[in-house]
Recover the amino acids of this structure.
């Protein structure tokens, strides 16, 4: 068998006037092989079989079964072929299926990338597309685990977008993100479009849940749910997700706080996103200019009343870090898990124990200021507890000698006294004197008589 490189070289040498024998000596191939490929009887890269292909008799059955069920496992098909006399290996079956392209494409399960996509017009001020973007490996100081969540909202007509970082995708964080992003976009469109997220609708039927219906009424929008398996219906926000992940999240520093990351995201969306040029009917214009001309309804003065809760761990100074600030708790909760909750847009923040008992309430400071909000009662209690601990004495060294003290010696004396046996026990344990005495002189005389004899 000649490769394509060998076949090209053989034909080039032949065009220079070389004989078949000279070409065979130069390339190291047999003269009959060279002659066959020069005549066009051989196919480069394909080795001719010495006999008939043993897979040919089973091609029709394999084709029929994979046409009936495109998702049929090759292992299951191999079990069926064994009963029909199939003598090749499982690897030969899978290789022939790939090489002969016997498995058809399932049209019902084709991804959106393999389908023709319709151009969907978006009128100005008509639709906002929403989607959650999962971002892996957030900075460790955030305390969010392995995944951060970014709610992205984008105006379908202009492409203007904003985002909201959250530690969870539950409904309270969704509502908080909807309010913040909507205010960042500058207004409310007529329709909000979502995929089938469980916090908005029933994933099976696509019907809006009762809890989210109140949110939609508060902002005066209609809710549109994407059809199942139609990812391109939200193509505008999907492209924004790709941009946010590759151009912003990929370069985020490890030492950046959540509040600093949120400010960085807002700045990126305004500087990089709003300055993009778009083709319009009047020529090329930036996203910011196109979005400014969209007829958006004003955002309600107050956010939708929903309580956002997050779990935090109090420090040894009885302080709880939340949104770039620190709030005090009683010293009994130092280094304990607490639940921080507050209404969206509210003035106060509540801190409760893990069982739900509210033990502190503070006025919320602006996010990211780095201020310390402390209650005077917490300050006095913390200082009292700290001084009581400080007066307890120096800590023990690991190799310090500490013999038993007076209390331990007194306890040991009581144990020894209990251990002494009573009079009855002594009498019981005294051995009896009524034992048989053996006279050894009898044995001595017997031994002497035996010696004399």
């Amino acid at each position: 068998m000649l490769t394509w490189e060998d076949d090209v070289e053989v034909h080039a040498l032949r065009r220079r006037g070389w004989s078949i024998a000279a070409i065979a000596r130069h390339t190291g191939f047999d003269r009959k092989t060279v002659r066959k490929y020069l005549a066009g009887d051989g196919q480069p890269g394909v080795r001719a079989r010495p006999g008939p292909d043993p897979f040919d008799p089973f091609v029709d059955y394999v084709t029929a079964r994979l046409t009936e069920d495109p998702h049929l496992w090759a292992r299951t098909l191999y079990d069926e072929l064994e009963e029909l006399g199939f003598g090749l290996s499982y690897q030969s079956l899978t290789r022939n299926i790939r090489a002969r392209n016997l498995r058809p494409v399932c049209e019902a399960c084709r991804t959106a990338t393999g389908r023709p996509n319709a151009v969907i017009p978006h009128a100005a001020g008509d639709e906002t597309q929403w989607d959650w973007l999962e971002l892996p490996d957030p900075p460790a100081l955030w305390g969010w685990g392995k995944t951060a969540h970014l709610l992205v909202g984008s105006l379908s007509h202009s492409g203007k977008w904003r985002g909201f970082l959250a530690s969870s995708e539950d409904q309270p964080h969704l509502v908080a993100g909807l309010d913040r992003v909507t205010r960042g976009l500058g207004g409310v469109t007529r329709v909000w479009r979502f995929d089938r997220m469980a916090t908005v609708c029933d994933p099976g039927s696509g019907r809006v849940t009762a809890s989210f219906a109140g949110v939609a009424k508060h902002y005066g929008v209609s809710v549109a749910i994407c059809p199942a398996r139609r990812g391109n219906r939200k193509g505008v926000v999907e492209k924004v997700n790709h941009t946010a992940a590759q151009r912003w999240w990929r370069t985020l520093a490890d030492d950046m706080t959540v509040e600093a990351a949120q400010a960085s995201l807002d700045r990126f969306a305004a500087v990089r996103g709003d300055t993009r040029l778009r083709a319009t009917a009047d020529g090329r214009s930036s996203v910011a200019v196109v979005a400014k001309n969209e007829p958006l309804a004003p955002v309600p003065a107050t956010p939708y009343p929903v309580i956002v809760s997050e779990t935090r761990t109090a420090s040894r100074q009885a302080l709880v870090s939340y949104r770039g600030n620190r709030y005090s708790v009683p010293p009994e909760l130092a280094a304990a898990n607490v639940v921080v909750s507050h209404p969206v847009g509210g003035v106060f923040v509540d801190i409760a124990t893990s069982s739900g008992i509210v033990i502190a309430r503070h006025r919320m400071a602006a996010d990211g200021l780095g201020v310390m909000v402390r209650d005077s009662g917490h300050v006095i209690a913390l200082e009292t507890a700290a001084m009581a601990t400080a007066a307890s004495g120096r800590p023990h060294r690991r190799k310090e000698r500490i013999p038993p003290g007076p209390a331990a010696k007194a306890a040991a004396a009581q144990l020894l006294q209990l251990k002494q046996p009573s009079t009855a026990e002594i009498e019981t344990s005294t051995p009896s004197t009524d034992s048989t005495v053996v006279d050894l002189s009898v044995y001595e005389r017997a031994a002497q008589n035996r010696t004399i004899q």
